[in-house]
Specification:
The complex is a heterodimer of chains A (282) and B (223).
Chain A: E1 2-12, E2 15-25, E3 30-34, H1 41-49, E4 56-61, E5 64-68, E6 73-74, E7 82-85, H2 97-103, H3 112-120, H4 136-148, E8 154-158, H5 166-183, E9 186-191, H6 194-200, E10 203-208, E11 211-216, H7 218-222, E12 231-243, E13 246-253, E14 256-262, H8 264-269, E15 275-280
Chain B: H1 4-33, H2 39-51, H3 54-64, H4 70-79, H5 87-112, H6 115-123, H7 128-139, H8 141-156, H9 160-165, H10 176-185, H11 189-213, H12 215-218
Helix pairs in contact in B: 1-5, 1-8, 1-10, 2-5, 5-8, 6-7, 10-11
The chains are: A alpha/beta (282), B mainly alpha (223).
Chain lengths: 282, 223
């Protein structure tokens, strides 16, 4: 479990901002920090990462203290077992895609783990390409692979959905779910993308001017998806059955269970336990 | 024609620029990434050779390196080295004289690296040394090249400091620039022209080779 309590006076364009937050993140959970620009989302991420020092508070991951203002503990960023995916990806421009990922490896970690990540992130064939030659989506996948290679207990992503079209967002959402299932990594996302938070996060914290306004289940806190007009129902994937070329999705709407035949492309987007929005246009 | 002054000039410039790389990297790193009391003082002091007349520097080196007292006496007593009118003394003076030509490009290079890249490397568990070797130095290759070329060229062109500190001892301190001056003084324009032209041509070819072969270094990520 990750326990975060942070206090910090931030100097912004509109004067000092008093940031004061406390929240918890369970192992394997996805938590989204949601709020307008200047709410303090990225500063929280930087303080958890150890790139910015808080004025007070504590960050504890399981039994390890990363920061404790009252005891003068400040674990340097390099000693915190976490992965950070920066908004602009921060890939090393003098290293190829593969070299960027290898850079994140721990000592004596086998190269096969890099190969596995390259495959998982659909980066095979791009190993020897420099980041500048790659698309934004490909660069982001390298950044995620690089952040994951050392198997961190916490993966943090700063505005991962900005400047992405819907198809890329869906792809990233699918990959993050896969990562979580495979590595049981806790994920902390900073975003102001209402719709993506609703579909990906287990919990959301709404921030404004450095304070938590509310927190809880994204659908309860943020309401229905914004980009759908009409009535939206949420279905939970209970099972995916494969019978030769036929894919059968077993979905639960409230207390109703239905079975739906679908294509392999569609079926591969979902995992058991996922929540899928179903919209009826008025 | 005596080639010794030309060879001596290149030996001095080569050694000076290599020593400056070793000394300049930590100084530039410190200035780029640290804030400490007296930083402005240190920056101003390091920049002094840019503005001071070389003869003023040479004069103070002469006093400082003299075996009569201070650093020169200590070097003489401990290592048996006489820094005045010696190649070793000339080398130390050249390192100090050309220090800003190495430090300033490197400091600018370090400062231009996106701090996100350093933070990314830190979050991947890397320490300062590893970040310096694997991230920062490869990224500032153009600055390293500029610093090396500038300090090399500046040392080749050294005159006032050499004259004050080293005099003109053949094979020890008589570098090409001094040889040109002496030949002109003797009205031996032919020999002065030979030294000058060789110096001009060698420096020009050196710069051509460096800039030509390192074009990919200057634009390293557009392969």
């Amino acid at each position: 479990m990750i326990d975060v309590k942070l206090r910090k006076v931030l100097n912004g364009h509109e004067g000092d901002l008093w940031l004061d937050v406390a929240f918890q993140l369970q192992t394997g959970e996805t938590l989204a920090l949601y709020g307008p620009s200047g709410a303090g989302k990225t500063s929280i991420l930087r303080m958890v990462a150890g790139h910015m020092k808080a004025d007070g508070g504590a960050v504890q991951v399981d039994s390890q203290h990363w920061y404790d203002g009252s005891k003068g503990i400040f674990l340097p960023a390099r000693k915190r077992n976490l992965g950070v995916v920066f908004q602009d990806y921060a890939l090393f421009p003098h290293m190829t895609a593969a070299a960027n990922i290898h850079f994140g490896k721990r000592k004596n970690q086998p190269n096969e783990e890099v190969d596995q990540l390259l495959e998982m992130m659909e980066l095979k064939g791009l190993e020897d390409t420099y980041p500048q030659k790659l698309s934004g989506g490909q660069q982001q996948r390298i950044a995620i692979a690089r952040a994951l290679v050392s198997r961190p207990s916490l993966l943090m992503l700063d505005e991962p959905f900005s400047a992405m079209d819907q198809a890329l967002k869906e792809k990233l959402r699918f990959m993050l779910k896969e990562i979580q299932q495979k590595f049981n990594t806790s994920i902390l996302i900073v975003s102001h993308d209402h719709d993506m938070i609703s579909t990906i996060a287990d919990k959301v914290i709404v921030l404004d001017r450095g304070k938590i306004l509310k927190q809880g289940n994204p659908n309860e806190i943020l309401g229905p998806l914004k980009h759908h007009q009409g009535l939206t129902l949420w279905a939970t994937v209970l099972d995916i059955e494969i019978d030769q070329d036929t894919y059968l999705l077993k979905l639960q709407f409230g207390n109703q269970i239905i079975e739906l035949e679908t294509s392999s492309d569609q079926a591969q987007q979902w995992n058991i336990g996922d929540k899928i929005p179903w919209t009826a246009n008025a | 024609m005596d080639w010794t002054p030309i060879i001596l000039s290149f030996q001095l410039a080569g050694l000076t620029s290599v020593l400056l790389l070793v000394i300049g990297i930590p100084i530039a790193y410190l200035l780029a990434y640290s804030s400490f009391k007296g930083k402005i003082l240190l920056e101003a002091l390091l920049g002094m050779p840019l503005v001071l007349p070389p003869t003023v520097l040479g004069f103070y080196f002469l006093l400082f390196f003299s075996t009569e007292g201070g650093f020169g006496k200590w070097m003489h007593d401990v290592f048996g080295l006489n820094l005045i009118f010696s190649f070793e003394g000339l080398l130390i003076a050249s390192v100090i004289y050309s220090l800003p030509f190495m430090v300033q490009p490197l400091q600018a290079g370090f400062s231009s690296v996106d701090t996100k890249l350093i933070e990314a490397a830190e979050s991947l568990g890397k320490g300062r040394w590893e970040i310096l070797w694997r991230v920062l130095l490869p990224l500032i290759k153009p600055s390293l090249l500029s610093g090396w070329v500038l300090s090399f060229a500046h040392t080749i062109g050294e005159f006032g400091v050499v004259l004050m500190m080293g005099g003109s001892i053949p094979g020890r301190t008589k570098v090409a620039s001094i040889a040109v001056y002496e030949e002109v003084e003797k009205l031996n324009y032919e020999a002065a022209h030979e030294y000058s032209f060789i110096l001009f041509a060698l420096c020009f070819v050196l710069l051509l080779i460096l800039y030509g072969t390192n074009r990919s270094t200057l634009n390293p990520f557009h392969k």
